């Protein structure tokens, strides 16, 4: 092989949680990941055998539980080959939430998490740990079409952040709009109903229900967690490998839409697809996020996608499009 010819191995995990037949039901999340799967296959050079799709449809064999999602992500990282250029991609559509921070330095702050179908929360620390495991030459791009998704990779640099201009007026539409947010109290109440334990400490419930499969943030005492985070920072091999495209700011919600014609989708996921269809050439990560913001603003949605990554990856081509 010519030394200048670089083969990029492309791997993906796609997760859609609609929470069917529950009070938290959404409608567009599975459609989001199926649309993205088709885009990866037809435009970005991904292969079917290098993708895992987890949905909570009744016929789905692999449900998007917290343990299953983390296992799929670990398998993807394990397949990434040292010494070659790997393009790893994770798309999540579903509920997001914010939980009280367990970091002593942030006693009044909140941390971001996604909500798998079994409520076994996956937090910003779990994604940071994953990024730190990547071999040299590997990028990890994450799209999270969920509420409070800004900052989901802990300590990743903010490139496009909080909206500071005049917000567009709310949309007038025949569509049905549902927030992809689960308030902390609803998550806590759900977990409490399953454990039967009377405590407001969410970690107690998660450990009782999921044991070693609970998120890293909940398995360690606060001070031990801080020590771990410092050690993680010290051993970060490739701190710039993570790229997060969030559906909204950390303090905002993302919309789940059912159009007047019955089509269901996430507003951010649909904006990404719109931008990609309107621009067939390669796009930089920051261009894609800025254009998606413009699409959402034009349609009157009250959410502002963000980009978190290194300066270099802000200018890198989205998913290293061939």
TrEMBL record:
One of its GO terms (cellular component) is cytoplasm. It comes from the Eukaryota. GO terms for molecular function: cysteine-type endopeptidase activity. InterPro entries: Caspase-like_dom_sf, Metacaspase, Pept_C14_caspase. Residues 9-313 form the Peptidase C14 caspase domain. Gene3D superfamilies: 3.40.50.12660. One of its GO terms (biological process) is proteolysis. Pfam families: Peptidase_C14. Belongs to the peptidase C14B family. This is Metacaspase-9.
